[in-house]
Amino acid sequence: MRANVLYDAADLQAFVRALTGHARRRVAVEIAQGHPLSTLNQLWRHFYDVERPSGPTADDAVAALRELGVEPTVVRWHREVSSRPFDEMVEVSRRRRCLPAERAARSPSC
User: Fold this and answer.
1) What's the Cα-to-Cα distance from 37 to each of 4, 40, 55, 88, rounded to whole Å?
2) How far is CA 92 from CA 34, 55, 74, 85, 87, in A?
3) Quick check: bond before 36 cis, omega within 30?
4) Could you tell me if 92 and 103 are in contact, meaning their C-beta atoms sit under 8 angstroms apart?
5) pTM score, whole prediction
6) Residues 84, 98: contact at Cβ < 8 Å?
7) CA distance 26 to 5
8) What is the pLDDT of residues 21-53, one digit of tens each?
9) 33 within 8 A of 58, measured Cβ to Cβ
10) What is the model's pLDDT at position 102?
């Protein structure tokens, strides 16, 4: 099973129709409240001075499904997520992107 697939669907209507067409009884979709990579928005600002969108959200997905005539049953739960200090996130992200060490100290105006 793969979660958050609705965030990757280029054509939500076609995707939902295909899922429904292949289902025997019903379709279950798990989607995070916000895009899983939205937590990295502040790092994009730090490294590239790029303002990333905060949406779409799970609420947007529910609204879109309703517009398509699908009435989803929504079950919400909260999972505690440990957060790292920003400096640690910068360092991990810098290494993953193969950026030189001096980029860690860059201000958002770079």
Assistant:
1) 11, 6, 11, 17
2) 22, 24, 35, 11, 9
3) no
4) no
5) 0.69
6) no
7) 16
8) 999 998 999 998 988 888 888 888 888 899 988
9) yes
10) 87
- Apex 35 CA angle, 30 and 37, nearest 5: 125
Nearest partner of 107 among 48, 54, 51, judged by Cα:
48
- Of the candidates 77, 71, 70, the one whose C-alpha atom is nearest the C-alpha of residue 30 is 77
Task: Provide the pLDDT confidence category of residue 110 given band limits of 50, 70 and 90.
Answer: very low
pLDDT per position as a tens digit, 48-84:
899 988 889 999 999 999 999 999 999 998 877 777 8
For residue 84, what are the CA distances in angstroms to 33, 93, 94? 20, 12, 15
CA–CA separation, 60 vs 55, rounded Å? 8
